[in-house]
Amino acid sequence: MNCVKVLVRNMSRSQRWAPLQRVGVVGVPFEKGQKKYGVSVAPAAMRSAGLIDQLKEIEGLDVVDYGDVEVAPCEEKANVDNMACLPQVSACNMTLSKTVSRIISDNRVAITIGGDHSIGVGTVDGHYKVNEDMILIWVDAHSDINTNKTSSSGSVHGMPVALLVKELADYWPYLPTMDWQVPKFSIKSLGYIGLRSVDNYERLLIEKYEIPAFAMEDIDQHGIQQSIKHVLRTLDPESKRPIHVSFDIDSLDALEAPSTGTPVRGGLTLREGICLMETIHSTGRLRAIDLVEINPALGSDADRRRTIEAGLCILKAALGFSRRGTAPRGVLDLPGKINVN
After folding, report:
1. Distance between CA 127 and CA 137 in Å, rounded?
2. pLDDT computed for residue 7 by the predictor
3. Which helix (H) or strand (E) holds 290?
4. What share of the chain is helix, strand, coil (3-state, %, to 5)?
5. For the chain, which residues score pLDDT lower than 50?
6. Residue-wise over 326-335: b if at least 16 C-beta within 10 A, else e?
7. Which terminal CB of the chain, N or C, has fewer other CB atoms within 10 Å?
8. What is the pLDDT of residues 7-23, one digit of tens each?
9. What structural domains and CATH numbers belong to the chain?
10. pLDDT for the residue 321
C-alpha cells in the first residue's frame, strides 16, 4: 500500500508540473554592465541564426517573440563608487522586469536573450514578482555576488546576485535610480553550477550562507546530472517550486563557447550543459531562463558560430528538444509495431 501511495503521489506531482508548452522570447541588447563592445548584438545574432524557427520545431511548443526590450538613453546621474553605468543598468532592468513578469503571467516560460549578466537583476526581479517561491540556478564560471565595495572591476555584471538577495541589502550604499528594485529574494533559494573563478569575498558568502554550489571539481567528482539533482533537492526538497535558470555562456569551457567576454578554461562541456538543461526540463518546473554573455564581436567567424550554436543547443534542451529525435505522428501506434497504412 505504501508503494502505491508513493506512486500516486509521484504521478500527481508529475501531472501538476508538466512542462509548459508555451514560451515567450525577449531580447535585451544591453552591454553597459561590462566594458567590452559586442554583447548587445547577441539577440540579433541569435535570431539571425534561426532561434525562433528552431524553437518552433520542438514538438508542441508554442513560441511568441516579444521583440527586444527598448534600451533608451539614460541621462540620470548616479555617483556610486566603483559601480559603472548604474543609471543605464537600472533603466534597462526596470523595463525588463516588467516584460518578464508579463510573459510569465501569460503562462509562458520567459526566455531572455542578453546582453551581459547584469540583466539578471531584471529577469529575476520580474519572475519573483509573479512567483515568490521561485528558486534560482545560477550557471556560471563566476558567482556574480560582489558588491561595489568588493568588486575589482566595478562592472555590474559581476554584482547582480548581490543586488537581488535580501540578505545583502545592508551591504550596499544608497543606489540612486534603483528605488524600483527592492531586494526580496532569499539567498537560501539560490544554487550555483559550474563555478571556477570565485573571488575571496564571494567564497566567504557562499560558505557563510551554505549556498549549494557545485564548482567544476565537484562536477568532475559527481557528474553533472547528480550535481544539479543535489542542488534541486537542497533548494526544493518537495519538488514544488518554480525554477529560474540564469545561464552565462562562459559556464561552458572556452573551447565550446569562445566568443564571450570573460572566458575561463576548464568549464562545462556542451554535452554537460545540454544534460543539465534536459534534467531541469524534466522537472516540469522551469519557468524562466536567461542566456547571457554571448559576444559575436569577439573571435573569428568560426568562434562566433560555435558560441551561438552552443547557446541554441542549451535553449533547445531546456525546452524539450530530444536528442533521440521525434517519431513521426501516426507511425508508431504501439511499441514494436509500425502502421504503414
Report:
1. 13
2. 33
3. strand 286-292
4. 40, 15, 40
5. 1-15, 337-341
6. eeeeeeeeee
7. C
8. 333 434 444 578 899 99
9. 23-318 (3.40.800.10)
10. 96
